[in-house]
Amino acid sequence: DAGVTQSPTHLIKTRGQQVTLRCSPKSGHDTVSWYQQALGQGPQFIFQYYEEEERQRGNFPDRFSGHQFPNYSSELNVNALLLGDSALYLCASSNSGTSNQPQHFGDGTRLSIL
Amino acid sequence: GENVEQHPSTLSVQEGDSAVIKCTYSDSASNYFPWYKQELGKRPQLIIDIRSNVGEKKDQRIAVTLNKTAKHFSLHITETQPEDSAVYFCAAGSGGGADGLTFGKGTHLIIQP
């Protein structure tokens, strides 16, 4: 039973560029949440996708956007990259139809902005 | 929005002793409180969670307590072992766990041999 998988593992970009990160949820999960974890900090909630729509959003600018596909996988897009966007981007999945289901995290994508 | 405060930022205990990490939250609508353990370079892993309809939950050496009135919850680890060394994060969420989580800044737990 595959857990949450994310790609790529590492990515280096320059300021002003755009990036797309990908996430495949744990088998049986239909909800995907994205988090940004700066070095030495706790994860910060970016947004959550369910039924191919953004269901909930944290305090992030609209440079951060996402998408969910019919197979429940998801993408996180960041435009006009800033140095401050350097962080570990974590994807977490859960099942909306099962009560008491916690969020399970992937290994993350380490994004470095030069 | 929700704000989660976590203390201490670093905790060093002797192997075999107990460790306690404390968190407070601000939003009374929060009803789900998970704890995650993150080892260096690895994903956060859920170690225990509690919902607002209970005051305490135990799983072997780990326990979590919740005081809804004070908006306070704590993680207790007994008989600490070297493999307990990691960064621990508390979090709060609503919707019974279905919603996005607000995390604390983390506690670096160091187990001294």
Describe this structure in words.
The complex is a heterodimer of chains A (114) and B (113). With 114 residues, chain A is an all-beta fold. Helix content of chain A is 0%, strand content 50%. Chain A is built from no helices and eleven strands. Chain A has strands at residues 5-7, 10-13, 19-24, 31-37, 44-50, 53-57, 64-68, 74-78, 87-94, 104-105, 109-113. The mean pLDDT of chain A is 94. By secondary structure, chain B is mainly β. Chain B is built from no helices and eleven strands. In chain B, strands 2, 4, 5, 9, 10 and 11 form a six-stranded mixed beta sheet that branches. Chain B has a five-stranded antiparallel beta sheet with strand order 1-3-8-7-6, with no helix packed on it. In chain B, strand 4 and strand 5 form a beta hairpin. Chain B is globular and about 40 Å long. The termini of chain B are far apart. The model of chain B has no long low-confidence stretch (mean pLDDT 95). At the A-B interface, strand 4, strand 5 and strand 10 of A face strand 5 and strand 10 of B.
Output the radius of gyration of chain B: 13 Å
- SS summary, helix count of chain A: 0
The overall strand count of chain A is 11
Structural class of chain B: mainly beta
Average pLDDT taken over every residue of chain B: 95
Measured by residues with Cβ under 8 Å of the partner chain's Cβ, the largest interface is:
A-B, 28 and 25 residues
Shape category of chain B: globular
Element pattern of chain B in H and E: EEEEEEEEEEE
Largest sheet of chain A: 7 strands, mixed
Helical content class of chain A: under 10%
Morphology of chain A = globular
Spans of chain A with pLDDT under 50 lasting ≥5 residues?
Answer: none
How would you classify the quaternary structure? heterodimer
Fraction of residues in β-strands of chain B: over 45%
